[in-house]
Structures
1.
Amino acid sequence: MHSPATLASPHEFQRIYVWELPVRFYHWLNALCIVVLTATGFVIANPPGINAASEAAFSYWFGTVRFIHFATAYVFVFNFAFRIYWGFVGNQYSNWKNFLPLKFAQFKEVMSVLRVDILQYSNKSLVSVGHNALAYLTYFVMFLVFLFQVASGFALYAKMSHSFFPQLFTWMLPIFGGDLGLRQWHHIATWFFIIFTLIHVYLVFYHDYVEGNGVLSSMAGGWKFLPEVTADGKTAGVSGKATAKPDPKNR
């Protein structure tokens, strides 16, 4: 059980601009793409038998579903490519180096987050300006699954397209046993996104409740509210360290 949170006076928090507009745009567009791709993907995998009173030539609903799936896949790819680009030109919180546990401190923070978020072994919440180390590592794994879904999806689409881009991924077909084998792996990977989304939404609300630093609202407006750093280097009211300087305009 967590102890009741103590309300802090306004001067005990600092307002920090964390998520830039391009990162927020990527996040919400990516979420929309995943929802559309998942929904249409399940319909394509197991299409329902829909009877219509009109002529068959006017009942092209399945073709429309496939078109939406393929068109959304292209949006997903370009959006993902843009996020990779922003990992090199964005601020410190969106930098690509955060996603790879290259330092011992990052591994240590991963274990600390596991103790708090997963094992519930400690009730001392960690204050992270951007994502915590475990979240960054999880997103890196998700990016790898993104790459697999993109490659496998376009490999399956290659036979139906004369475009050069899908043909770049046809090498995957013999590796996974042809269309049927690759389609099964493509379908299995979809469940990764479903499970990830459930855990992601839970942890977002969990951290908003426990830490109260505006995790959810920060992905809408970009700002987080973190404990004030005192003269002795400690934070007011919450354990952990704030690693960013306060915004001088909001003092």
Note: Residues 10-51+58-250 form a domain with the Fumarate Reductase Cytochrome B subunit fold (CATH 1.20.950.20).
2.
Amino acid sequence: MDFVRSPEWPGVPIGGLAGNSATARYSTAPGTPPALGRATPPPPGPPPPYRPPAGDGPPNRPPAAPPVPVKILVAGGFGVGKTTTVGAISEIAPLTTEAEMTSAGIGVDDPGIRSTKTTTTVAMDFGCVTIDRSLKLYLFGTPGQARFGFMWDDLARGALGALVVVDSSRLDDCFPAIDFFERAGLPFVVGVNAFDGRLALELGEIRWALAIGDHVPLVQFDARDRLSVRDALLVVLDRALDRATRDRKA
């Protein structure tokens, strides 16, 4: 048998076109190349400018506003946990200026009996944390030694509030910080750092010993715990916003 014909193809009359031929399929004779390019020549003149179809591309929305920066100080006496506080909450690697404590500091820098501290802040600590899309806190930790007290005025410039970190077993070390912010008129919150998860005194006793009024918030927190530090900073922020609201109404 020389060929096989499909039964679905109709018979071709003599001189007719085969149903499966190129001529029948494409209406062109075999060997005729297909037409390429435009069917008609383009109109004279430059081409029109490109315009994207309607609905394509991103919607025309205004850019989101950056968060409002808010400067907060983390202050207190020597070895109360200021550097730990900033490092626990900062969303970036905190900037610290720690230096090794040497024998020259004996009798000058006293971190307390319970402390295993071997370094000390000689300038400041810095960190930041985003509260939400509209607010970002920039934290500046002050040095605790009295000989660096001259830096506090510069660090406090532009701050809206402060967290004064207190060691309940060494209340005497926090009096200079409280006096500083009372004289400066800067809103502050006293945060009692719970070393080993407990306090040496009750919060009411601490308030009485520090002689701070009821208008000054007094909170307990753990400088090592991020959520605990966050809650303390939110109290500082609330205090600062309350002061700003009252000043605006006045």
Note: The mean pLDDT is 78.
3.
Amino acid sequence: MAGYTLVKAFVLVAMLPFLHSCIGDGGSGNHSGDTRHESSAEVFESPELQGLKLYLGYCFVCHGQKGDGQGPYTAKLADPPADFTDSTYFVGKSDEELYDFISKGGVAHGKSMHMKPFGFQMTPEQIRSAIAYIRVVNRNERIDVSAESGYSAEEIYRNSCVMCHGEKGEGDGRVARMLNLAIRPLNPETLGDYSSAKLFNIVEQGFPQDTSGTRSYMPAWGGTLTEREIIDVIDHIGAFGR
């Protein structure tokens, strides 16, 4: 199975130039403020799917890939993060209460200082989407991600990757700064250490669970992005530093 995945990734990534020439680069406007932007694409993404991508970008490091409170940063915390898979966790909690907690952070509610006030990083719509995804996790449901979202490669990167990797792939995203993580920049020197197939596998599957260091903070995007979207993102980051 691993060999099949590698071959599949190699074939897909080999198509990068062709796909890029067919669909374009999604524009080259100058954007700032991480994920706080409006998309110009015709987007077909549900709030739950958008919330999943935001969750992996902002919440994964503490709450874990599955939402069970077992993220790579958890060992450094005095208080364990909330386990969103606990079906009793949100009994009696309204969306408004969750919105206020996410927006204002833990300290404002007498909780952990490590739960930052994300109202400064996320738009109201994004916070509501994150809540919609957390509800899905709490109900032990799944999200269909088989359809293309309609986002360009640049928009996918900004929605899903910029929180850690930064606008230009320099490893200076808000989550990286918040947690003081030394993330390797996405420049030709760093990317040159990996084959195209390996890059695809890293984005799709993340690094193994026993990986140490900042690489453990890379979530698996295979259940969130389609194969074509992964290829588009790899194509996009390949231009950093050139």
Note: Confidence is low (pLDDT under 50) at residues 1-41.
4.
Amino acid sequence: MKIEEVIKEKPHLQSPIELYGRIRTFIDQCKREKDRVKLDSDISLIDIVIKTFSSVFHIPYESLTFLKDEILKSGKDPIKEPTTLWSLPIQSEELSKEEIERMLFIISKPLFVFLRREGQQASFMENGKCPICGTDSSLSMITENNERIMICPLCEHGGSFFRIGCSYCFNKDSSKIEILLDDEDIRVELCLECNTYIKSFKETHYIKYKDPFLIDLVSLPLDIIAQRKGYIRRSPNILGLRIIE
């Protein structure tokens, strides 16, 4: 389902879906550029990401070169640890703290995706976290075979997990998990043990939308309901948001 079609179907979610469309374009263009250009250093890859961000989000590249300087000064390696981008000490008179945090999150996204190897398979069974980048997941797909696939919001890796259970505290007692459903039967599983919630959608939704992160966004009202009930989303969505208001 194309972004334009989703917006027509869900006009009240136009703004976040349009932003997601840009983020998806950004990630895809970064992957193409990485494959096209012969890289001679990690800094070359950082350059690709910053230049592509500049192009997709219509921000002059000259206004973003300070990011590369801050990365070099930090002594961190965002290629191996993309989360280090989030803690760069950036101050701006033009951007708010929230806008800076959102920008750094979006810029980190392709770096997380680059951590994955083609065809890589690994489950979330060991500790409930993404086996590639160590992130908690708040999104899962239920397959036609009634198996559960957790989906990492950062590197986008999908791996198996227990059909019923909280990936945060490993509560597997179905009597301590409550269910909320929206009008598309996308569900939120509320863990009564640790106040965490996880969204789940059926494989038929994936066939419709072709994108788990788009499914996450079209069901944002479920996040609002769950959070108003006091439940916590442990990982961000594709826009970098954990708290939905």
Note: Residues 3-113 form one domain.
